[in-house]
Amino acid sequence: MLEVKNLRAKIEGKEILKGLSMKVNPGEVHAIMGPNGSGKSTLASVLAGNEDFEVSEGTVSYKGENLLEMEPDVRSHKGVFLAFQYPVEIPGVSNINFLKAAINERREAHGQEPITAKEFLKRVKEKASLVELDNKLTNRSVNEGFSGGEKKRNEIFQMAMLDPTLCILDETDSGLDIDALKIVANGVNQLRSKDRSFIIVTHYQRLLDYIVPDFVHVLYDGKIVKTGGKELALELEEKGYDWIKEEQNPVEA
Amino acid sequence: METLIEETKISALATSLSGSFSNKIPDHFKNTAERATGLMSGLEFPSTRDEYWKYTRTAQISKVDWKFSDEIFNAEIPAHISGPKIVFVNGHLNSELSDLNANANFEIGPFHESNLDVEKEFEPYEDFRTNPFLALNKAMPQNGYVLRVSAKSNIENTIAVVNIYTGDKVISQPKNVVVLEKGSSAKIKEYHIHTKNSGKTFANTHSSFVVGRNAQLGIDILQYGSDESFHLQNADFLLDRDSRVVQNTFTQEGNWTRNNTNVRIQGENVNANLNGFYIPSGTEHIDNHTIIDHEKSNSESNELYRGVLLDKSVGVFNGKVFVRQDAQKTNAFQSNGNVLISDTATMNSKPELEIYADDVKCSHGSTTGQLNDEAIYYLQTRGVPKKLARKMLISAFAEDVLKHLVSEDIRGEIEEKIDTKLAK
User: Fold this and answer.
1) What's the rounded mean pLDDT across residues A29-44?
2) A22 inside domain
3) Cβ–Cβ of A91/B396 closer than 8 Å?
């Protein structure tokens, strides 16, 4: 589904990703872990198409196409979804209306008729219940006045509405209490399927207690330096990231 | 034959206009007209040295050899303006296009047929030196609408007034008077349409609104200028106690637009609301000047002006709020927000507060910035193309003003104008 080769990216002249490679097959859940500043969120942003980041080298192939050439909206139409670490508040733009527009843009790109009002409302009801999102929130302005937990649940709600094939979750667990974390994880788990893949960016192992990954990658200094199964996350939780740093910089150690 | 006129003198323009002025001035207004004519001598076209005209030049107006026109036919009313209306073309009533009839509750008709005299009440505020165009309007007032609503009467339907300005080098000076007697209410929508491709047109309008005790007035103004239009709209409001007024001004398009709205709060417990939305493109120039004068205590005023500026357009906002010594417990809020869509657009925003009372709540805010890139990116990642994302943000921005609409039926044409301007 996704193949990243030797990806290098920078922001404001500073190189963050320094030759990252990874491969994600349909149905797989990949966790990206690593210390602060290692490039986890940059990877998520580059995959989603954030123009602030400049890709200087490498390739990203998604379903056989060059992902890097696509606008963010085109990536979305082709099934890429990014759940933001800091969801943006957009006063005056209704959550529901914009989602309807988003769905219809996607349908148009696929040569389909716009969604009927009935079908849309049914889907809203169904998907909102997935993350226990209050009806009132779905009708409000995008993220405006939402609590931290509500914002993250809204991200997963939008994800469910848009029915993506590659879901990228950027530190979705940050700022969540344990109850909200469980709700979000439960929503994600219900969306797991053999055709849908996940890249879960997280600093802590905690989320992975609830969303069990197939692979865990350790990102350090812009590169994946270690890959393992779910037990690698537990090891990181126990030992912290220092041993990774020491392995990578033996001289300093 | 060419005559030499002193371009900078308003009175010179008045003299050259007098030959083409054919309107009949009602008896009760003759003194006012004479007084205005007298006071006009010596007044010059405002220059940018005058604080009131700092960002809006009038030189282009002073250079045109304007004349009044009797042409009232061949005017077309846009199809979307349906329902009963009163229509004026170049400052003359067009009775064929008008189909608005008074009933027992209210009178409506052209200025020249009315004997409703409100001038005396406004005289103390008259300042021809600051705004000499007002003297010009009063010296040679043309036909606008006069509306009088009887006490405790409520006019259900919105009254539509259509002003059409057409021809080349044609000046029009409609004079409007609205009197709401105590406890009455009315809704008005005013269209100002400068015909496209007809030549230079200059509308120098003046409206006097007298809103009585516990009366309610809502007015939406839609301004459709042309590439060669000059639109100067002057409105003066006198508000008695317990009254409520909403004025929304939508400047849809136009080469040069200047709106002067002055509100005098003369009683307690008044609620005055001035709102505006403008979306200039090309080299369009739009200037909103407001004065809200709190003379009495316990009243509230709200001002909300929002602008989206494209291309090389220029916007001006100047809002002056006075809170007089007697106006304790005043609440006065003013906000002007602007989004610059291009690097070459300019906005000049100047809020002014003058407070002479000590127990008041006043605030003003002015912001000018760009669209939020982060929000656009966020919407894009959900599958909304950039263009549509921008439109969504601008629509949300305009909604702050649109939610105050008096007549919801004009929402469509305002949203459509936003769409077409952004699509270019």
Assistant:
1) 93
2) yes
3) yes
Is residue B165 assigned to a domain?
yes
By CB atoms closer than 10 A (0-12, 13-18, 19+), residue B197 is exposed
Render pLDDT for A3-25 as a digit per residue (tens, 0 to 9): 999 999 999 999 999 999 999 99
Number of domains in chain A: 1
* pLDDT tens, residue by residue, A124-144: 999 999 998 888 888 899 999
A79 chain-B contacts, CB cut-off 8 A: none
Residue B383: list chain A partners with CB under 8 A: 73, 76-77, 102-103, 105-106, 109, 162
Number of independent structural domains in chain B: 1
Beta strand B285-294 pairing with B244-253: unpaired
Using only C-alpha atoms, what is the Rg of chain B? 21
Token pair, residue B407, equals: 């007549």
Cα diameter, chain B: 68
**CATH label of the domain that carries residue A189:** 3.40.50.300
Kindly report, residue by residue over B372-387, the tens digit of the pLDDT.
Answer: 999 999 999 999 999 9
A210–chain B Cβ distance below 8 A for any pair: no
A84 part of a folded domain = yes
The predicted model gives B137-163 an average pLDDT of 95
The answer on pLDDT for A246 being more than 90 is no
Q: What angle do CA B275, B48, B295 make, to 5 degrees?
A: 45
Please give the pLDDT value at position A248.
81
Is A192 a domain residue? yes
pLDDT above 80: residue B101? no
Q: Chain A partners of B304 at a C-beta cutoff of 8 Å?
A: none
Q: Give the residue numbers spanning the domain of A116.
A: 2-248
Rounded to two decimals, the ipTM of the complex is: 0.95
Question: Which of B277, B306, B376, B377 would you mutate first to test chain A, the one with the most A CBs within 10 A?
Answer: B377
B331-347 pLDDT per residue, tens = 999 999 999 999 999 99
Q: Assess if residue A253 is contained within a domain.
A: no
Query: What 8-state DSSP symbol labels residue B328?
Result: T
Pairs of residues, one from chain A and one from chain B, whose beta carbons lie less than 8 Å apart? 77
Structural domain of B320: 10-372
**What is the Cα–Cα distance from A20 to A222, expressed in whole angstroms?**
7
Strand locations in B47-200, DSSP E? 85-89, 92-93, 106-110, 142-149, 159-165, 170-172, 174-180, 185-194
A156: contact with B, CB 8 A cutoff = no
Residue B388 and residue A101: Cβ atoms within 8 Å?
A: yes
The pLDDT-based confidence of B5 (bands split at 50, 70, 90) is very low
Q: How far is B387 from chain A (nearest CA, A)?
A: 11
